Amino acid sequence: MWYVIYSEDVENSLPLRKQTRPAHLARIQTLVDQGRVMVAGPCPAIDSEDPGEAGFTGSVVIAEFASLEEAQTWADTDPYMLAGVYAKVVVKPFKKVLP
Questions:
Q1: Contact present, 60 and 41 (Cβ < 8 Å)
Q2: Is the alpha carbon torsion for 83, 62, 50, 23 positive or negative?
Q3: What is the DSSP secondary structure assignment for residue 8, as one 8-state letter?
Q4: Over the stretch 56-67, which tens digit does the pLDDT of each residue have?
Q5: What would the mean pLDDT of 30-38 be, rounded to a whole number?
Q6: Which of 37, 72, 78, 98 has the fewest CB atoms in 10 Å of its CB?
Q7: What 3-state DSSP class applies to 23?
């Protein structure tokens, strides 16, 4: 089943994000290589593709897992979570309807 993983950053997370980004992206790439990612990306803090020093307020990943428990465990062990980039992570089942 698909699961949406919505993560909210701590304030001033950009330095931690930059430091941890390679490990975070490598982990998501593993899911991409397995064909399990619908979409993934950050939420800019301002209305811009490149928010610069304004940074990001969080991230969204919609990916396929065997269970809610597996999705939650994956989210809880994300490098951004372990490094303190994320203040909060919400994992919910997701039903794709469109397109």
A1: yes
A2: positive
A3: E
A4: 999 999 999 999
A5: 98
A6: 98
A7: helix
Coil, strand or helix: which one is 98?
Answer: coil
- Whole-number Å distance between alpha carbons of 72 and 76: 6
Place of tokens 């809880």: 76
In this structure, what token pair is assigned to residue 41? 């990306």
Can you spell out the DSSP letters for 46-75? SSSS--GGG-EEEEEEEEE-S-HHHHHHHH
Please answer whether residues 85 and 11 qualify as being in contact, where contact means their C-beta atoms are separated by less than 8 angstroms: no
Tokens read off for 40: 């993934």
The 2-9 sheet, strands edge to edge:
37-44, 56-64, 2-9, 86-94
Q: What is the CA radius of gyration of the chain?
A: 13
| DSSP secondary structure letters along 79-95 | HHHHHT-EEEEEEEEE-
Residue with tokens 């897992």: 65
pTM of the model: 0.95
User: Which position has the token pair 């803090």?
Assistant: 45
